[in-house]
Amino acid sequence: MFYDDKKAHGLKFSPFKALVAPRPIAWVSSMDVAGTLNLAPFSFFNAMAESPPTIVFAPNNPRPSGGSKDTLANIEQVGEFVVNFCNWNLREQMNQSSAHVPPDVDEFKLAGLTPMDSVNIRVPRVREAPVALECTFMFRVRLPSNNPKIENNAVFGRVVGVHIADELIVDGRIDMLKYRPVARLGYMDYTVLDNVFTMDRPDESLEDYEAKRRSRAAE
Ligand SMILES: Cc1cc2nc3c(=O)[nH]c(=O)nc-3n(C[C@H](O)[C@H](O)[C@H](O)COP(=O)(O)O)c2cc1C
Questions:
Q1: Please, where are the H alpha helices in the chain?
Q2: Rounded distance, CA 174 to CA 200, Å?
Q3: How far is the CA of 216 from the centre of ligand 1 (A)?
Q4: What number does the ligand 1 atom closest to the CA of 184 have?
Q5: Is the CB of 40 within 6 Å of ligand 1?
Q6: Beta-carbon neighbour count of residue 175 at 10 Å?
Q7: CA-proximal residue: ligand 1, atom 13 (nearest)
Q8: What is the pLDDT of residues 147-181, one digit of tens each?
Q9: For ligand 1, is residue 42 a contact (CB within 6 Å)?
């Protein structure tokens, strides 16, 4: 099949998000100037650069009550946020933290999670999360929207601190099958990482690739 702006897909639900899948989930903790905490998942999310480590996510649709999502409003006020990662054990809490609740409701409490001090920023991370990226706000790009009631945004963050649960590190590498991050598919579907395969590049091994990266960094 083919569809575009002029030709409808004719399916019961838009297939777009099921096609661009799986998407990692940024489980973003943020804080307003008064110190009220906020936590919400975002699956329009990815890493964009490694040096400096840079991420982007998209707090898009307005809340049912109108206005920007609390996450975006907080980040613009305070200039910092944490991208926490959700594993299999935390899937229910992550889902619960997406509830549309007023700005003064702390989703850490709502989902039974523990805020823990960050190292380089004031916004706390989720203690239960296996991985967390402390970020400073770089900038927001307003994206086009086909619906005047919906705003689309890309928020860029620079990673200024990385937390990894010690038990995930085996022989100097992240053991993905211990990590088991949860990722978003389309509809109300998710997947969990439960298999890994390896392919060397046609012209370089992992050792070659890392050696080149280190020598570029040293220049
Ligand atoms: C797994 C998952 C992924 C989500 N991804 C996004 C997303 O990429 N962009 C978005 O605007 N909302 C997304 N949402 C919805 C937000 O989490 C939800 O609107 C939340 O209430 C926003 O909270 P806030 O107003 O406290 O920022 C997602 C929800 C779930 C459960």
A1: 16-19, 70-78, 91-96, 107-110, 176-179, 206-218
A2: 18
A3: 38
A4: 1
A5: yes
A6: 13
A7: 42
A8: 888 899 999 999 999 999 999 999 999 999 999 99
A9: yes
What does residue 88 show for φ and ψ, rounded to 5 degrees?
-55, -45
Q: Give the start-to-end residue ranges of the domains of the chain.
A: 16-218
Q: Whose CA is nearest to atom 18 of ligand 1?
A: 98
- Number of neighbouring beta carbons within 10 Å of residue 193: 16
CATH ID of 16-218, from 3.30.70.60, 2.30.110.10, 3.30.70.920, 2.120.10.10: 2.30.110.10
Q: Which two tokens stand for residue 84?
A: 């926490």
- Return the residue matching tokens 């594993």: 87
**Mean pLDDT over residues 31-39, rounded?**
96
Q: How far apart are CA 133 and CA 83, in angstroms?
A: 5
- Write the residue with the smallest CA distance to atom 23 of ligand 1: 40
User: 98 in ligand 1 pocket by Cβ < 6 Å?
Assistant: yes
- State in Å, rounded, how far the first CA of the chain is from the last one: 50
